[in-house]
Design a protein that fits this description.
Layout (H helix, E strand, L loop, with lengths): L2 H6 L5 E3 L8 H9 L4 E4 L5 H14 L4 E6 L5 H10 L4 E5 L7 H6 L3 E6 L2 H9 L4 E5 L5 E2 L7 H11 L4 E4 L5 H9 L4 E4 L1 H4 L8 H9 L5 E4 L6 E4 L2 H11 L4 H8 L3 H7 L23 H22 L1
Helix pairs in contact: 2-3, 3-4, 6-7, 8-14
Length: 313
Amino acid sequence: MNRITELLQIKYPIIQGGMIWNSGYKLAAAVSNAGGLGLIGAGSMYPEVLREHIQKCKLATDKPFGVNVPMLYPNIEEIMQILVEEGVKIVFTSAGNPKTWTSFLKEHGIVVGHVVSSSKFALKAQDAGVDLVVAEGFEAGGHNGREETTTLTLIPMVKEKLQIPLVAAGGIGTGRGMLAAMALGADGVQVGSRFAASVESSAHDLFKEVIVNAQEGDTALTLKELAPVRLIKNTFYTEVQELYAKGASVEELKAHLGRGRSKKGMFEGDLVAGELEIGQISGLIHEILPVQKIVEDMVAEYQAAKDSLQNIV
């Protein structure tokens, strides 16, 4: 056991990212059943929908699972109350100040992780009393840090200053990537894109096909003025770049983004007008697989890579 498996009571130090429109109870339960930690993505759920997913997840697994909560959520007070009422044991917070809810969650016996994109925010999370930090590099899909710090440099810089367990995220979807992250000082890894392209992911099948067909360079970070997000370069992305070329204001960008753009793309399968959030690792994802197979392959590749390095050095 290492610090992450001990803290979370899981077999492998593999945590599934709580991705919006991808991370329903089926995905979370499947990852937990496979020996990792599944996370329900609350960011795409109304409060009562989240309650339903938590209840269904409890029936689908007897292993630990958690909920990812973006703190920009408009119904955040109601969400936090539901987590307590439903007896959720693990919560990962993101997109906000960890001081706001950490003490409340800890008072109710909940293990708290917080997602950050820099050493500065990692230390703030530690000071706020979280149990673990997820440091996410620039390679990650979805909403991202403005600093554009890659995972390769971010993890050792956070590790140098952090006392609590550290989870690496961003660009990790293979056993070799997992080994590299651990070598850099991580106690575990958080995997998003690879699980988005799983049988159990709640994403639309058309979006899953886009992931497996993605090549190197097919994603880009954009909309920094609103909230930096890594997307597949589709028609919507091209329209955003055209707005930039015309010198569009923040208000014009916001108006073009509108509402429900990510739901339209990832959940409803509109590959033209939808926002298709995925990480750079998508260029290494070539097939849609069951979660059990994904975890087994990662663990086997991790071990094989570790063994091969011992023979090289």
